[in-house]
Structure to design on (402 residues):
């Protein structure tokens, strides 16, 4: 079955939908009039330092503050000094920062002084002189070859490298060529930063739907479909620039086949993904409640019925079905941070272990780093999922306020 990326306009949003095995796995909605800043690089000015949280607040756009952690490996590039990476940050400093995470609720965007430049195969990590290999590359031989290749091509005090999953099947010459390209991009931006005023955007990240194409390229994306002429033209231009060995098919949706939204059930899926209750196939249901601090998910038996003698077997069945659906809903709704799951209580230790193993396996399917931490003393399952973009309910808050 084809893995598809659908891009459509819906009620003032550009909606990006990832379809895998005929099921919508992920939805992202970007307001048409809202400026995208994730991944952008700016010359910012340090306005305040809060020592008790070891952080600085940096104005990177006029009137727009960002949070910059001053942990040991912060080391931003100063533009009103030596132009070098340094961990000493003072009020009034002008530094080059990159938007690492979008604003979430009351929290401002998260900034980093360690700039990342992402290619098809490699990521250049400024200020971090080490080599990392994607965890998805399991072969020891492949990891060793990549490490050796990167080491030979150059790791300096200024930057290090992360080998992406795609690098495993790429030729050495292609990897080296991309590394040179990323080095040049890094040098150019640092040089520009030395001569630009504060609030200057030194690098504009691609539109989120283009970034999704790059991110999902390594998940074997086969087809990109859009019903927008403007989006279609931008995708074609972007793919020509990327020069990938295998290009996904890009097509403009023909409305003779019906509306793209209706054929793929996009609006209905989005509406359901904004609701607290999710029904399971055999009558159980989930209650999903995001809060400021965490996401709580409660599993209920609902309409499902079982004979008294088989009740524990039935509970396991409902819990297993819930585990698969929770893993899907986390990705679909882009829920992240700390997630606490209250499964139906089971008396069998064996059944609990089976559930934990299955849940862990389902969570591993998520391309966003997601980890099953443990079971708490109260019997709740603790999961963490990396925060990058806003959850879907916040992306859609303008039209679907909670």
């Amino acid at each position: 079955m084809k893995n598809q990326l659908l891009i459509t306009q819906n009620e003032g949003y550009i909606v990006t939908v990832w379809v895998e095995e005929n099921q919508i796995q992920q939805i992202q909605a970007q307001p048409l009039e809202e400026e995208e800043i994730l991944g952008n690089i700016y010359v910012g000015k340090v306005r305040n330092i809060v020592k008790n949280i070891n952080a600085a607040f940096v104005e990177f756009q006029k009137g727009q503050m960002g949070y910059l952690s001053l942990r040991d490996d912060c080391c931003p590039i100063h533009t009103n000094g030596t132009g070098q990476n340094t961990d000493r940050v003072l009020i009034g400093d002008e530094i080059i920062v990159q938007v690492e995470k979008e604003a979430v609720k009351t929290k401002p965007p998260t900034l980093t002084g360690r700039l990342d430049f992402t290619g098809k195969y490699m990521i250049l990590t400024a200020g971090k002189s080490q080599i990392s290999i994607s965890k998805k590359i399991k072969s020891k031989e492949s990891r060793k070859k990549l490490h050796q290749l990167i080491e030979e091509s150059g790791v300096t005090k200024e930057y290090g490298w992360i080998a992406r999953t795609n690098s495993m099947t790429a030729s050495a010459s292609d990897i080296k060529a991309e590394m040179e390209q990323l080095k040049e991009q890094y040098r150019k931006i640092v040089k520009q930063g030395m001569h630009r005023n504060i609030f200057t955007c030194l690098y504009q990240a691609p539109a989120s739907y283009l970034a999704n194409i790059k991110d999902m390229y390594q998940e074997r994306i086969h087809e990109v479909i859009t019903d927008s002429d403007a989006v279609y033209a931008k995708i074609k231009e972007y793919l020509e620039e990327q020069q990938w060995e295998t290009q996904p098919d890009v097509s403009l949706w023909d409305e003779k086949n019906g509306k793209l939204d209706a054929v793929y059930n996009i609006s209905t899926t989005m509406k359901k993904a904004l609701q607290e209750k999710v029904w399971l196939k055999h009558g159980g249901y989930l209650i999903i409640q995001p809060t400021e601090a965490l996401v709580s998910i409660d599993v209920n038996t609902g309409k499902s019925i079982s004979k008294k003698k088989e009740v524990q077997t039935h509970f396991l069945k409902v819990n297993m079905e819930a585990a698969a659906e929770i893993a899907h809903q986390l990705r679909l709704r882009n829920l992240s941070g700390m997630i606490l799951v209250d499964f139906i209580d089971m008396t069998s230790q064996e059944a609990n272990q089976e559930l934990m193993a299955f849940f862990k396996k389902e969570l591993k399917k998520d391309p966003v780093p997601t980890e099953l931490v443990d079971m708490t003393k109260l019997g709740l399952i603790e999961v963490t999922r990396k925060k990058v973009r806003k959850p879907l309910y916040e992306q859609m808050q303008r039209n679907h306020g909670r």
